[in-house]
Amino acid sequence: MAEDGQRIRGLSSGLAVILTGKDQRESPQKSHLISFLDDIGYQSVERTLEHIFHIPYKAVGPLPTPINASVIHSILKNDIRKFQDNQDTVLHNRDGICIADSGCGPNNVTIDDASICGDIRIVKQPLILESQAIFSSARANVCVWKGKWMYEVILETSGIQQLGWATLSCPFTEHKGVGDAEDSYAFDGRRVSKWNKEAKTYGQSWVVGDILGCCMDLGLAFDNVRKMAPGLGYYPAISLSQGERCNLNFGAHPFKYPIQGFHPLQSPPTVNSLATHLLQCLFRLLELQRMEKADSTSVEKLGSLKRFAPIKELFRSIAHAICEEFFSMVDMELGSMEYVCWGPLLSFLMDAFRKQPPHDYESLDGVIDLFLEFQGSRMMFQHVISSLSCSCKIATLVLTECPFSGSYIFLALVCHILRREELMILWWESPDFEFLFEGFLSRKGLNKQDLQCLMPSVWWPGSCEDVSQESRMMQTTTTLSGAVNKIEEMHQKLCCLVIQFIPPISPPQLPGSVFMTFLQNLLLKNRGADRNLPPPGVSSISVIVSLYTVILHFLSEGFAEGDIYRWIKGTGTKVGDDVGFLHRSGQRSFPVALFLKNDPHRTDISRLGGSFNHLLKSHPANDGETEVIQWEEGCMDDGETRVTHSTRQKPCCCSSSDIDFTGITRDPIQLRFKGSRAYCSPIPERSAHVAAECSAGSLNDDMVDKPSSSGQSEHEFSYRPLQHHLRNIPTKASHLSSATLREEELLDAMLLLYHIGLAPMFKQASYYMSHQSQSISLLEETDKQIKERACGEQLKRLKESRNVYREELIDCVRQCAWYRISLSSQWKQRGMYATCKWIVELLLVLSKMDSLFIYVPEFYLEALVDCFHALRRSDPPFVPSAIFVKHGLTSFVTFIVTHFNDSRILSADLRDLLLQSISVLLQYKDYLVAFESNAAAVQTLPRALLSAFDNRSWIPVTNILLRLFKGSGFGTSKHGESSLSTLFQGLLRDACIHDEPLFSAFLNRLFNTLSWTMTEFSVSIREMQEKYQVLELQQRKYIVIFDLSCNLARVLEFCTHEIPQAFLVGPDMNLRRLTELIVFILNHVTSAADAEFFDLPLRRLGQSQEKINRGMILAPLVGIILNLLDASLDPESQNDLLGVFSSMDCPVTVQCGFQYLLEYNWAGSLRGDPSATRLRQLEQFSDLLRIRTESGAAGKMISGGEVEVDDDDQCCICYTSVADARFEPCSHMSCYGCITRHLLNCQRCFFCNATVLEVHRDDEKTV
Fold this sequence. Notes:
The chain is α+β, with helices and mostly antiparallel strands. Helix content is 47%, strand content 9%. Helix 9 (377-394) runs antiparallel to helix 10 (408-417), helix 14 crosses helix 16 and helix 15 crosses helix 21 (743-788). It is elongated and about 140 Å long. The termini are far apart. It comes from Protea cynaroides. Keywords: Metal-binding, Zinc, Zinc-finger.
């Protein structure tokens, strides 16, 4: 053996550090320790053991051969004795703390039940707490009076929580808690404040998964902390709002972020240090085994370096001896197993597995095999699984570690562990199975500071930042997308394992029963999660999103496990394994009995027709009667516009030129009944040329970005497959559990998950996208103003405002980028599109059957509409808007236009949702084309819009009509632009002409609504004139009412242009109401005491006065007058427009109004508009009106004034006409004009409130 001082090629004998290039890339700090000698042979066994057990060189004398367990145990005795001697020093440092025994052990820190105020529930031991009262507070059973102490809190929710310390003198009430009294200190990350009687801004906002270290020491966060004595110390204390959860770690588990100098309140087990040492010894043994099995190592390349003694013969005995000591040691002290498993053991398993690919599956399997030989291993693996679940909740993405960052390593480790059937059973039998499953599906939230670390470089369109920022941000988002894909891939693998698992219970169950039970329980637990104040116990939003993503991948991209696929096919489906459920062509089916089930998971879900219990009474349905409804894909679309997975033109989610023609079922929609077969009313069958199947190769290459494997080949993941697979599946279906997984049930659950989890996130993403656009506009406008002003105080304020706008913009850009990364990858958008197509077809089919349609859950419709618009708003767009609807979603247009006024949909909010969808889509020409080419829209939309103009829906209907009329009014067609939709304008005109009662009711509501909005507008003006300062909310209200008034006036203008006979032919009531309304509006617009004040609130930030001014309301008034003047030339015109205006009882007001219209500065508003040439016609009418008014006044003077009317004969409503109409049956009287107008809105008498059945004029003519 070489001597210590001898050198070989410049290296001394003993241990050498070898760092390969690959090791440098994985971990610069990581190195391998090996021994070397000359070229003669291996290092001795004694030196090998010294390295493994980390003892001094030559501390082990010559050993007998072969090496057995007793030799290893004897080597370990000295180490064990050394660690035991060190415990006295550790215990000596715990002065200044007192733990009260609460029945969990003298040294265990927990919540003192006697201190609880409110209602606090222990979700999971040791201390995951949840408040079930409005505000709950509690103290722990430990107090400290000197020293440095800490505990950690893991946030399970991110609402209002006050975490910190309090004395016994701090009172807890329903409204006050920790930090609200003098001797208490707390931090609340929701309000970003620290509390000590009063709040002060402190720290940063927190998110779910954050870990807070609560430390007690002078000067950390608070001043003047009192020094206490034994028994009068500070207690760890918390206050939680309703539904808030947190995980308190007083020291039962190792701290995630220990702070030097601060001690845990609960001392760690005395064996922890020794356990850590033993696991380090075992890891060094594994490292030697790895080097020995390596095909090529740095040692062989150096030539002169030699390995330790061969490990193959020694591994078993050394490893077994280490494990014997390890298990005997952790069993000696209560609580030590849990602490060691959450700390050193988990670190050891991760090191053995390797945190970065390629993972060492062989070493990990060897360790698991070794551990399972010992009696305490089951409890140990339970703690390991719990620790891995918790680690997934708090794992943070680190940009430099991507794509294998965040919770990836913990998920990869647990997926491999759970491929063992016995460990999967162990997990499933745990009472915390579902809680831990949710933990694995959790992901830590990100706050503003987290996003800043992940995306240091920010760029946006039009940015003046460095050009390189764009490429750096693109690289960052690509990297983060890869990390998210890896985590989602692990979620899918874990769920596949759970689906594949067959629980060892009777009766036998098929794969999927465990997963479906978990899914149903999770949905049941999250009932009410979409409320403004969710009930306690709901899941984290990240769990819902992850589970939704998994199911979407299964249904859209297919299942990776072929064995699973055989057991989860949809009803009557016969296609290849390579086509996802949502993309299958041909016949589709759905078990409508799912809607009729009377079980606790579904009965409280609101249905389109009302509550489930109400429907059972009013429209009873037998859930055993109708089993399955079947239809052909695309059967609800027109033959010319039909796009399916079988047609030559594929939907946007799939496209291919490969066509495989097959047969088609002759009856497109079928109902399958138990014991019999029947069909619903037929729908025109499909033509044979659309019967092609959608093959696996139908996905465009530019659309496919399925998550790949995590860098390993499949055989690596399959090293330890579930041992049973499907070998014990019984053949008789009668003995199988009803909980077997079905694709249709997965689709149903996925929609509910989308409704409670994804919809709020897409809404938030939409908010940030909108705010980003606004911030860009504000920033550009501010830069423009800065260039125009070179100095002064205003320039300083502009620069300060610019900095604020820029910071907000940068935050919005990061938020939008993160939402794109996490929600809008290409395969998710493809799946969402296919989901929309699938669900809208289902709803259209069911709408043909009233008895089933009313039982459809409301969330089906809500998820459909929200998912559609989330895809439409995606940035970058999923597909161009020109084909978004045309190639696959024409049925969506059919559904919304035929159901926004459907009385079977009981919820007015849902009908408004459909109406809002129409309003939004008609803003864009590409979508308007889809409406114009849709037969259902052409046939039903015009009449439905007119009938929907009521007290609730008049705003969206007005917006829709305005968009259809765009460009057809006075001053709206600049540079010769044509109107937006001549087709729908003609259809609306025809509907008004041919359905006179419908148009009369619509026109009456239009008059009433415009009169109300102008009255509110006038009131708002007076309120702001009376107040010195205009509030932002008041200004916003002012602007909204003004816009609504302008829109309603435009609709009225269209009516006078397209249906002038409604005003000029027959009774003049409509014409009189119209002229009264024009004069009313002119009076309010022109009589403002301060004209400048009138326009000031209309100047929105970032918009010029050219776009927002009083001309917006004056232009449609001019258009109305000009339209009626043109129509008056028609010989069929009966009513005298000039005479009605001149007969108004306020001639001065009328003349002033017309004079204001003529003197208004139309040159700025009508620049480039051909309407300006018609103002001469208005001037001529004004002159004629003045002449008529003056001649009428002169005639009255000649005749001696107005003829006196007897008071008994005068109408006591208007006091201007004779009471010539008698009401039946009450016999009260008024003038005919007053009662006719009154009956348009109310059928009761003016005077006695009796119902008016008939009206008789004095000439006995009955109306």
